[in-house]
Amino acid sequence: MSLIGCASNKKGHGSQITYQSKNLEMKGYISSIQNGDTKKPGILVVHEWWGHNEYARKRADMLAEQGYVALAVDMYGNGKQADHPKKAGEFSSAVFKDIKGAKERFTAALETLKNHPHVDKTKIAAIGYCFGGGVVLTMARMGVELDGVVSYHGSLASPVKAKKNSVKAKLLVFNGAADPLVKAKDITNFKKEMKRAKVDYTFVNFPGAQHAFTNPGATELGKKFGLPLAYQEKANKESWEKTLAFFDDIF
User: pTM to 2 decimals?
Assistant: First the structure.
């Protein structure tokens, strides 16, 4: 789980890194703007079902600009990306079918972030988009040591159910009210599960927002593949503002 290599990316504030999850090489991106020796909270960024790509790295850079150290993780291994929904579905399904392996990959990224010299190990959170939202919510359900978790248009159902008092993180969940991929029963069941488990969570449902509403490239991808994906500027802006306020609160 150690960092074994890095290369700078002049487009952003960070560097591409390679770390290990057992025998699998993971290719991520860590972003930070360092001023002095002050240690900062660390935030993991989990990608959409397309894999670790430029969008995840962009979000890591945006967090760096706010004073955090952010690691855009690789949940598929070897920096694997999908260019078609069929392949993306295969990649993402494989992760959720092996929850133990998914936790190992997530934990490898978590330990890599904690070992960064500018990170305060006692202040760690995670955010995730679509598939990544489902991942971070599942990791919270599994009791991973995180201060906070933010899900954007993520799947609410999970092969793991939260047990009473097992979730250590505060949760902030953003959903598109017009997202056909998240059913009304999914929302109801999620809220019931959180209540039973006594989880500290906030659920925000954005009117008119569809799946992937934070990603400016979503509308084009939706048209290309006939999927219910669409960017919504208002929901994107408000969810980011609420995220930063959430981090100010927990850290």
Answer: 0.95
